[in-house]
């Protein structure tokens, strides 16, 4: 009964919460900033290792120099996170990175001055302050921009950016001044409260030691290093441990059980979460996608650096994998504390760097105790036992449903599901790649080539003339290889579809104005995702791109896809109505293939309906043609143009015409073509007819 409840309720809820987290923009901003300092953390770990090696070899000056260097890296981390939040926000919202970075740093400096009048520079800051100032500043600027757009329509988008920057900075400065002058005592009391609250995590005894384990491991769920978050506690804890060991050597005091080295030995094997056990579990699983990750993560884990594994597996924003990540070091703490308390193993008598490999660190810190080394190996095995069911389930292969196309090579590959097989009906809800993996795919895509536009003609069947062009996105690699838009799912997963749609809209309109001005009375059809329809920037960007006139008789058309569920239908209906008032036609794409077909017809203002290719394939069935006729009659009732997609044979074309359809798009007429090929087609179509052709046409 308990197992069934665990499988059907707890894990299902945890996985559902993961979906929400992966699509939460604040969580995305935090993860983006924590990923930015991963290289910094790795370099810092290597520098500490170099310091330990130099100290062991007797190069004391070099050891001190390396240790001071790692302190500089540590101080720089919050500032880097603050800046990267601004960069992430700017890219996501198509804003100026310079303005966003300036606003984020300015907010940080103002907040720093509120807390300390003597603060002259902003390297002495905490990560929570860096994250909070970055998010608050940029969110406030977004709110100000929205309200300024409501007040009036700006001809130049730069005006709104500049004005919102100064207005936002003024609001922050004014608000901070009010707090400083009128509520300073409350700020002081609040800071004192948090300082006293942190004492509960200071590991003075067994129970507080448990809280300290949680403090070090739980923040990793958001990609935040517990040591970086509560550095003051660790600094004081380390200093106290050094004094205790020094007094013990002098014979003035007994050794404490708890010390930073105690946690490094028993709770941070391979890094926070005892991830060396996780690496062993992954190695035990044959043929899984994470074995390549281990080529980087495993050598670093020997020196207790585990950021590549935490972000690559991932542990971050994974409500399921965070369970063993916390439970493993907690179990190790309970066993090691009990063994030390009962004097089965000696107490820590030497300060050993956290970057020292596990068995060697235990041997040195315990005064060369073989029993302590044996306990270390037992705890490593215990960690494997805890991690294994979670890892085994998360790496289950599903070859039938999880084939994918590599973005760069074009080869088919097999992806591993991140869900748990025992959760009913969950595999079709969550995409195979995590949010972090999607970001990496996007970065790889953007650095290995460029986006280009293709156009697929739409033909009027009465005279076989091209009357519209649908814009399609492709990726061209550096070696010239063209990849279809299989990559769009990564942009959907990361919430960046508006960036793609805006780019396509702007570049397609510019291309039409520059290269297709000789063609007249055409429609340019641009696909708009549900994410873009609810983006607050859409109306402003549409007005901007439509400021320059299109060639004679050209119209812009937005295709909203019926194969994806719209999350805010009321808002979408309002946006589409405003678009039509701007002279933009609205087409419903993929009709008959997705969600709530009739609901779409009655709710949204539509000018054209594009019947999905499934309607064409259905013609091969006994009642397929009758069904198509009824669908055409239904669409005719709401007075929309009807276009059918995917016509590839003459027989299909004959049936489509017999059903009363006038517009067609398919390989029988034209495949998606690059811009220059479409320009040639349009030039031939609009070429004046010779007298001979005119007489023939008149005769016909």
UniProtKB/TrEMBL annotation:
Against InterPro entries, the record matches this protein to:
Cyclic-di-GMP_PDE-like, EAL_dom, EAL_sf, PTS_EIIC, PTS_EIIC_3
Kindly list the places in or outside the cell where this protein is found, as annotated in its UniProt entry: Cell membrane
Any Pfam family? PTS_EIIC
UniProt KW Transport keyword: yes
Q: What is this entry's stated membrane topology?
A: Multi-pass membrane protein
Query: Domain PTS EIIC type-3, which positions?
Result: 10-390
Boundaries of every EAL domain copy: 435-686
Segments spanning the bilayer are: 26-53, 65-86, 98-115, 121-140, 160-179, 199-222, 293-316, 322-341, 362-387
Q: What is its EC number?
A: 2.7.1.191
Could you list this entry's UniProt keywords, alphabetically sorted: Cell membrane, Membrane, Sugar transport, Transferase, Transmembrane, Transmembrane helix, Transport
Any idea which GO molecular function terms this record carries?
transferase activity
Question: Known PANTHER family for this protein?
Answer: CYCLIC DI-GMP PHOSPHODIESTERASE PDEF (PTHR33121), SIGNALING PROTEIN YKOW (PTHR33121:SF70)
This protein is called: Sensory box/GGDEF family protein
User: From which source organism is this entry?
Assistant: Buttiauxella ferragutiae ATCC 51602
